[in-house]
Amino acid sequence: MRIVLVGPPGAGKGTQAAYLAKNLAIPHISTGDLFRANISQGTPLGLEAKSYMDAGQLVPDSVTIGMAEDRMGHADAANGFLLDGFPRNLGQAESLDDYLKGHDLKLDAVLDLEVPEDEVVKRIAGRRICRKDSSHVFHAEYNKPETEGVCDVCGGELYQRDDDSEDTVRNRLEVYHTQTEPIIDYYKAQDLVVTIPALGKVSEVTERAMAALKALSE
C-alpha cells in the first residue's frame, strides 16, 4: 500500500507511522529522516539543504521533493511506503501525484489523524524533557515524574523546550492550518481521505487505522 499520513503537530504521526509501517511491512518515509540521512551522507540534495539551513532559510520544496522521490525509488519501497511529513503543502502534493503517475503508481489512502486543537496544545505544552538525556520524556499530566521537575530515570532536571511553549504550539498549529490542511481537501476530491480519531491509547489508534485500511482493500 502507498499511504500518506497527515495530522496536526502532536497528533502522534511519528508513533503511528512506525507501527503502521511495521504492520504493513512497508518503509516509513519521514521528512526528518530524509533530511538527516541526506545531510549526514553528504548527498547533493543534502548539501543543498544544509546550505539553506545554515543560512537560517527555509529549504525549498524542490529539495524536499527531490529527497522524497529518491527515497520512494529505493528497492524496499517497490511494494509500497508510508509518507510522514510529506507532502506538507499543495505544491508538494501535486508533485507527488506527478511522480506517481510517471511511474504508473497511485496512492491507496490518506490517513488524517484527527485531534482537537486544545488536546494538541495540552499534549505538547505539557511535555517535559530531561536535560541529561533527551530520550527521557515525561508529561505534566499524562506521564508525571515521581518528583516534580526530576527525571525518574537518571535524576536530571526536567524542562520545557522553547518550541513546546503554548504560544509556539499555537503558532505551529496556525502554520498547519494554512499550509498543510489544504492538502486534505485536495485528497478528498480524489476520494482518498480516511479520518482516524487519534484520541485514546496508541494501540487503539493503530487498530482504528489498520481496520480502516483493511476495509479499503476489501
Verbal overview:
By secondary structure, the chain is of the alpha/beta class. The chain has a single domain (2-115, 179-217), classed as P-loop containing nucleotide triphosphate hydrolases (Rossmann fold), CATH 3.40.50.300. The protein has helices at 13-24, 31-41, 44-54, 61-72, 90-102, 117-125, 166-180, 182-188, 202-217; strands at 2-6, 28-30, 81-84, 109-114, 127-130, 137-139, 158-159, 193-197. The protein has a 5-stranded parallel beta sheet, sandwiched between helices. It has a 3-stranded antiparallel beta sheet with strand order 6-5-7. A hairpin with a 6-residue loop joins strand 5 and strand 6. The mean pLDDT is 94. One of its GO terms (cellular component) is cytoplasm.
